[in-house]
Amino acid sequence: MSNVDLTQLIDWRREFHRCPEFGWSEFTTTARLITTLRAMGLEVLAGPKIINRDFIYGRTPALVESGLARAKANGVDDALLAEMDGLTGCVAIFDSGKPGPTVALRFDIDCVYVQETAGDEHIPNRDGFASKNPGMMHACGHDGHASIGLGIAKWLVENGSRLTGKVKIIFQPAEEGMRGGRPVAESGIVDDANYFLGMHLGFIAKSGEIVVNPNNFLCTTKVDFRFYGAPAHAGAEPHVGINALAGACHAATQMLGISRHGKGMSRVNVGVIRAGEGRNVIPSYGELQAEVRGENEEINTFMAQQMHRIAEGTAHSFNLRLESEIMGEGVDLTNDKELVELLTDIVKRNPELTAVQQRSFGGSEDATTIAKRVQRNGGKSIYFIVGADLKAGHHQAEFDFDEKQLKTAVDLFIGSLQALMAK
């Protein structure tokens, strides 16, 4: 057990919960992190030093401008915003000054598109820390993740003399939609890492359970398809128009009918469709927001290729012009045995915790891209689940989690650092 104060962890978590921000717009959140970390005495990197612009997905000028405007309204210093250079997230570096391994830890910081409930029984409403940003909510626990990262940073500053090597604490933007992991990985910030550790609160485990080796991390590709036709009067000249709505709808139904793969889990979904200008106008524009997932890269590639073939074929048959844009990607992950065994041993020392060896994750996680980068460079990686009882499921308006598990997570990371970096 560490000496990290649970009250401080809760205070940080609630501060972040009040000001949720969508991926690539987390300027206020990033500023708060940088200010807090530098006040602790840590080196902090931000902007292009930790984000490779060439690999950014799903970042629009409108999204960035909204986040910058919010940050300025919140009093964020202009010099700090200039340092970020339009990019969110940061990396804190603790250097013991002694030879030893480099360990990278990752915590995501963005929120989801959910309007938080106004219910009186909802603890954030009752205790005064509900979201102040309409349509934005920390409904996935990333506010807790950011708090955990700060707790580890504080412990390192106060106790780091006992360690060797270096720790990089990554506060990653834009996890939702699988958009931020790759630009962080491609920045090279983890290329010297010997170990990578990441985690999620709640999800597939209740309080007291630690899933030390979750499996079935699904690869994923998320794509926006835009179909362009021609408008016309629906009564007088329908023959002049080219109906993009019809093409988009046809593509959607065909995508949902893609044959599933026989070698493992595969998924496809069309989550958004937008089209049309008016009741009496032949629609000139249609947009699909779609995704596929696969148990491994081969399956995911198959699903993505099928999705693109359908879009291209539909555009050709309906005489439409097609644009497609990858909005996010994620990869699978197999945890390294050494770290699974290390974490299992740490969990077993705490009688209040139970180590669950395997449980299906059943979804995609942006941290896997960073984790696999470390593995490809010869390092070892693990992603685990810290169970937390939930008031409602992730991405729901009533979501809230057992805040006591913030300290559980901090203690597990600290125990891992002590084992990997002991003098």
TrEMBL record:
Cofactor note: The Mn(2+) ion enhances activity.
GO cellular component: cytoplasm
Pfam families in the record: M20_dimer, Peptidase_M20
This protein's name: p-aminobenzoyl-glutamate hydrolase subunit A
Needed co-factor(s): Mn(2+)
Binding locations of Mn(2+): C140, H142, E176, H200, H395
Sorted UniProt keywords: Hydrolase, Manganese, Metal-binding
Keyword Metal-binding on entry: yes
GO terms for MF: dipeptidase activity; metal ion binding; para-aminobenzoyl-glutamate hydrolase activity
InterPro entries in UniProt: Amidohydrolase, Bact_exopeptidase_dim_dom, Peptidase_M20, Peptidase_M20/M20A_hydrolases, Peptidase_M20_dimer
One Gene Ontology biological process: folic acid catabolic process
Keyword Hydrolase among UniProt keywords: yes
Domain Peptidase M20 dimerisation: from-to ranges: 224-312
